[in-house]
Write the structure tokens for this entry.
Amino acid sequence: MTITDAVETFLAMLAAERGAAANTLAAYRRDLEGAEEAIGDLVHADNAALASLGAAWSGLAPSSLARKCSALRQFYGFLVDEGWRKDDPSPALPRPRARRPLPRLLSHTEVEALFARAEEEAAGDKPDAVRMLALLELLYGSGLRATELVSLPLSAVPRDAPFLTVTGKGGQQRMVPVSTRARKALTRWLALRGDAGKALFPSTSRQGHLTRIRLFQLLRALAARAGIDPEKVSPHVLRHAFATHLLEGGADLRVLQTLLGHADIATTQIYTHVDSARLVALVNARHPLSRQAS
């Protein structure tokens, strides 16, 4: 097995089994080729060779180093799974100095203020206001990416089941639960949107649906009206708030991975930043030995 064969087979697996997008595959290829230039044959590289990448990549930003190491860990896991290696040398890879920082987060109080303003404005059934409420419910209530949300077709909204069919990165589809609140907001919006094409949130844009930029603008304008610093609010921040608040409420990390549409659990682990005091309280309240001690 040559390094070229191994890399091509690995990338083919990512495309076929995980639905990796073309940009993702290109990034993995660059990372693997860069590692090969630094240490030679990756297929037969030992722990010492991988450890030497720490010096070769010492000038990289922590986020770049983490991405390259992730590509190599997945590559060696693939080689072991396929029986092309008996050992996995990836534990010898350098470790990034710090995990990628989270974007700005919204508190529960700020989220409540955002919803209170949106609900107040939607009370008069003005189409734009009801649409804003439905968008907000899906961003925070279902954790959708901005692109996933604005490009939703009408067919993604089932009549009976409380789920949306979402097409995420790499064309991967997943089922996302929709809260009772969100379903009510969607029902109100569907009654007002009229017959305006196949998009759930249609517009006169080239794509035929609301654009990501317009969604960003609408959210920031709503935040300003709700008395929240607009700089703190974006579709991505609401997605992070969805994940963080779910995890704080006791959601399982694997369940969160599925809801967010992450291919790699390592991406979801960014949300394990929940404060240590809450975790200590959880252990004291739930661990069997803690209950025995009391």
Observations:
- The mean pLDDT is 83.
- The first helix runs from residue 3 to 17.
- DSSP finds 15 helices and two strands in the chain.
